[in-house]
Amino acid sequence: MTTKEYLNQAYYLDKLINAKMEQQQQLRDLIMRITPTLSHDKSSGGSIENKKESYICKYADLEKEIESDIDRLINTKQEIESTINKIKNPKYRLLLTLKYINNKSYEDIAAEMDFKDVRWVHQLHKRALKVIEILK
Fold first, then answer.
1. What is the pLDDT of residues 4-18, one digit of tens each?
2. What Rg do the C-alpha atoms of the chain give, in angstroms?
3. How far apart are CA 128 and CA 134, in angstroms?
4. How far is it, in rounded angstroms, from Cα 41 to Cα 46?
5. Which of 12, 31, 116, 133 holds its CA 20 to 30 A away from the CA of 55?
6. CA pair distance 132, 136, nearest whole angstrom
7. Taking 80 as the threshold, does the pLDDT of residue 72 lie above it?
8. CATH of 85-136, one of 1.10.150, 1.10.10, 1.20.140, 1.10.1740
9. Among residues of the chain, what percentage have pLDDT more than 90?
10. Would you list the DSSP string of 72-117?
């Protein structure tokens, strides 16, 4: 695993959690749309309830997955942050924290660090990655 891949783990975990939360919302919407139909036929009544129960179980399973992923995300961010904090240069630490812990864009980082040129952020980023590589 490259240094950049190592540092980007939290980003992709966060995106995965968001995707699962979106799935969860879609399931919730589906569950809310399922309504029993009034019918004199007794055989049709149970299937709607069975479907709703099945979706509720899937929703609960997805909830557990999301909770597990959130735990992994927190642990991963702590590990990455611990690695970043080993760097002595405060500019590098700040840049890497903003990029890989806070998921900021290079433009946002430039603004936050009071750099007029985003290219300078890219240069610092390359240097900071080299330092991380040595520390790993």
1. 999 999 999 999 999
2. 23
3. 10
4. 11
5. 12
6. 6
7. yes
8. 1.10.10
9. 76
10. HHHHHHHHHHHHHTT-S-HHHHHHHIIIIIS---HHHHHHHTT-S-
Sign, CA torsion 115/117/123/129: positive
Residue 7 identity:
L
**Angle 3-33/45-84 helices, nearest 10 degrees?**
160
Q: Which pTM was predicted?
A: 0.80
Q: What does the pLDDT look like over 25-46, one tens digit per residue? A: 999 998 888 766 555 555 555 5
Write down the mean pLDDT value for the chain: 90
CA distances from 122 to 15, 20, 59, 75, 125 (A): 23, 32, 42, 27, 5
